[in-house]
Amino acid sequence: MRHLMPSRRALIAGALTAAALLPTYALAQDAVTLRFATTEDPDRMQPVIDAFMAQNPGVTIIHESIPFDDFNNVLQARIGQGDSTPDVFTADMPAVSALVQRGFLTDLTDIVGDISALHLPASMEAVTVNGRIWALPVSTSSMVMYYNADLLEAADIELPGRTPEDRLTWEQVVELGRQAQTAGARWGLLWDQVSRIYQQQTLVESLGGGNGVSPDDELVLDITNDAWVQGLQFYADAFESGLSPRGVPGPGQTAELFASGEVAFFAGGPWWVSRLFAARDGLNYSFTPYPFFEGGDAVTPTGSWAWGINPNTEHMEIALDFVRFASLTEEGALAAASLQPIPPANVEALQTYINQPLFQTENLAGFGELIEYELANTARVRAPTMGWIQFESIINRSIEDIRNGADVRPALEGAAAEIEAAWSRLR
To answer: What is the pTM of this model?
Structure first.
């Protein structure tokens, strides 16, 4: 059954009511330095840092930018050894359960109270472990299928519609992509986050394969069922056939191929509009809803960053205020999103985000409304398991092997054996 997003008035009324019930914290009068660790470039976090410090004289926030691949190891080396810093850090939402298992997060449940009216349901699901809230949602995500209008028109392809009722199947996208290649497009289809479970999970979930973990036991794996094999075989075939390019190293490079006019269909996130596409001269592009498999479910990726607090921090009240500012207030949530730019999880800030002028241009009319619809109806979180960190590393590597020609079922069986061996130490 589909559930529509509540009206803006209802969301804001609920958010204001919930915010009014939240406790407030008096900041210490002495000068305090708070250390804040993320995987983002320094400048992207500066707006929310500056906004908070402007309201709290005497507080200095130092941002530590740590490479994504090193982040968990840094947390282990510092918080795992009892270090009081970083005081606040960003947590990839599916990693929350793993961070709880390691003792890296402060239980915020009794401190923040009922904040369900302030955030999207999928975001709250992602930060809740065993009924307790361990981090506060700050950002979320969704994806659409962008298309190059010039390449499609050159192939006499009717431009796809922009509403949920216009959703293409993956089978149709493949057919249209090949048609565009015949007419001159270099590539027919490309995914934004190649070989990352964040995006490829939607292929197997559309076919009913699940998120890879049993709903009854977070340490029981399920990545070798027929839907997983079928979904990732589809992915493999796109590269094997030449519809999609091998050798593209990462998301920045995939988006650049589309922005350069080389790709007919690009399954990607809304962040690329302001970060790359809008400023690219000569790029005639628009969007259609994220595809699904014929006979399957409409499924879109979601999840992003939550902010957690180190249990060892020496500045708990100020850390709480900083996290609450970014998550529970419209001002803070919009400041956190301003240079990312990914949708804020705060429902009031989300309304401002989806109604921004950039999304009202002719080629993007309806863009914000579609993102809102997907977040309310088709968004699926990644597997909530204490073994997420091992799962993500191993499964991403296996998906990359599949992209480069490895046989699907043996690759998944090998990944399953490796993940289960790693998880055996968590029981």
So the answer is: 0.91
